[in-house]
Amino acid sequence: MTHEEILEMDRPYVICHMGISLDGKVTGRFLDLPQCADAIEAYFQVNRNYEGDAFACGRVTMESSFTQGFQPDLSAFRGRSVLPMDYVADEEATFFAVAFDRRGRLGWQSGRIVDDDPGYGGAHIIEVLCEGAAPEYLSYLQSIGVSYIFAGEENGELDLALALFKLRRIFGIKKLLLEGGSILNGAFQREDMVDELSLVVMPCVAEEGDKPLFWQSALSEYRLEESGLVNGAPWLRYVRKR
What we know:
Dihydrofolate Reductase, subunit A; 2 domains; 6 helices
């Protein structure tokens, strides 16, 4: 897809960027093996090279990578009335971390990602929620400068098409790096919203029970566009065949 075609889309161009085992798994103890260290660094290097406007993860991935399970005290916000409207905390932000967190459970402590890696650090946080998220949680997000949008009915599933439309129209996100987990990746893939695959291959086979690249995937075709070694690790870039 050309630069001009990306600009004309009504949603961000989505690149699923993941590190995978030789048997196509994306989570597991293999990620902590010493022999995978060079490939892990290659993953971060490719992430930086893409220079995306945003990266996106599901709740579990965000929790393990950034919030470390922190749970804020919401008692001071109980009883407050909050209109169920999209909220932009920082109108000047140009780099974003998008958290697909339908029930509103992530415990952020500020409105930006704190990380030494420039591919993540400083990203303004956007929560993607379903309607019915607790008012005290919304009040808390406002108090620490986290933006949020609604994309999905109460007690329902996230509406990915609506979420991406809002991310493009409200925040101007044109290039989005989708970085797991397996369930969120699968949801995007089934909706035919993965335009490109970026895969860094780890030199190992995962264990039984480790999660695949796409959970409950649908048949689709991709074309190998580019391949090579990054920091000694194989990197494969595929583009969706339309």
